[in-house]
Write a structure and sequence with these properties.
It is a single chain. This protein is α/β, with parallel strands linked by helices. The protein has a domain at 29-93. The chain has two helices and five strands, in the order βββαβαβ. The strands form two sheets. The protein has a three-stranded parallel beta sheet, covered by helices on one side. The longest helix is centred in the middle third of the chain and has 15 residues, at 45-59. The radius of gyration is 14 Å and the shape is flat. The termini are far apart. The model has no long low-confidence stretch (mean pLDDT 79).
Length: 96
């Protein structure tokens, strides 16, 4: 178990009653690992991935982040075969 904590941010654009930010323990040490962030082109997906990339780079030394963007939300991601085996973690952002 890793000592770092990850901040979860509620991406909803209007105020809510509950606290939108929570600190949670991250169960995996991503130091010196490779993370692929896939943007599906939906509105705000790029912002969510940008926040995530910044957080993991702040907490895990030497983490390598690879950004990829699909051509459209319902389009296939032809680059997946190219990335196969390159990453320890892949995250696909879906947002609106």
């Amino acid at each position: 178990m890793c000592e770092a904590a990850v901040t979860l941010v509620n991406p909803v654009g209007h105020p809510r009653n509950e606290d939108p930010i929570k600190e949670v323990a991250w169960p995996v040490d991503l130091s010196h690992k490779t993370v692929i962030l896939i943007d599906n082109t939906k509105p705000k997906a790029d912002l969510i991935l940008e926040l995530f990339a910044g957080a993991i780079q702040e907490h895990f030394p030497g983490v390598r982040v690879i950004h990829r963007r699909k051509s459209g939300a319902v389009s296939p991601a032809p680059f997946l075969h190219e990335l196969n085996g390159m990453a320890d973690l892949a995250i696909n952002a879906v947002a609106d």
